[in-house]
Design brief:
Elements: E1 10-13, E2 19-31, E3 34-41, E4 47-49, E5 53-55
Length: about 55
């Protein structure tokens, strides 16, 4: 199992429990050498961090 979600993978938004589909993922540099996975979703216009999503 990968440490990030894959494109087209169905996941759950932790905040709402809604099932959504990953459109695209990227590894974003946050500063101080920190990197975070970010995701755009087919059902939403904004991006989400890995910690906001969970596998189904």
């Amino acid at each position: 199992m990968s440490e990030h979600f894959e494109d087209e993978e169905k996941v759950r938004l932790k905040e709402t429990g809604e099932t959504v589909t990953i459109k695209e993922w990227s590894l974003t540099r946050m500063g101080n050498g920190i990197k975070r996975y970010t995701y755009t979703l087919k059902e939403r216009a904004s991006f989400y961090y890995h910690s906001e999503l969970e596998r189904i």
